Amino acid sequence: MSTLSASEPGAIERAAEVLRRGGLVAYPTDTVYGLAALPSDDEAVTKLFAAKRRPLDQSTPLLIASPHDLALVAGEVPLVARRLIGHFWPGQLTIVLPRAPAFRSLAVAGETVGLRVPDHEVPRALVQLLGSPITGTSANVAGGPEPLTADDVRAQLGDAVSLILDGGPCPGARPSTVIDCTVEPPRVVREGAITREELVRAAGTNVQ
Known about the structure:
This protein has about 210 residues and is an alpha/beta fold. The protein has a single domain (about 1-75, about 95-170), classed as DHBP synthase (Alpha-Beta Complex), CATH 3.90.870.10. Helix content is about 30%, strand content about 20%.
């Protein structure tokens, strides 16, 4: 495992190369440190689940760089989801949408996919350089403490991670809110940084 300052020239390029070779990269976000694998790389995704001690049937969310990237992984995006995207992206809202029929990944079980545009330049820059989403799961052992620093990642995942992009302490606080927009009305799967009341106002409809 190696650690590189996320602000160092060439850091994003090096992280992208590690991912292309099938490695795992930890990176800072607007919530906690995330753990990236290329969703298209089955071997890398399998390593990620093993490092986290997480069952393969528990999907991980994916991070994209902007709403324009939705077409890479999502099928139909309903109006209510577009309203929420307009209000909360980039930010702390993960939106569950139908998976695009052509998109396949071991990171995504079933016919839906959770997507987020984080309010942090490092993961967005990484996605842009790769031209691909990255996994957006937290860089910790399943059920372990939230990783707020590079040291937290090292303590929990050790050499399972090829590279840590050290961006300093993450804000932590609450995780992203997760809302399922494949059902009507939309259903809150996990309450987090964005409240149900905020979701209702932005969606213009009832929220389960």
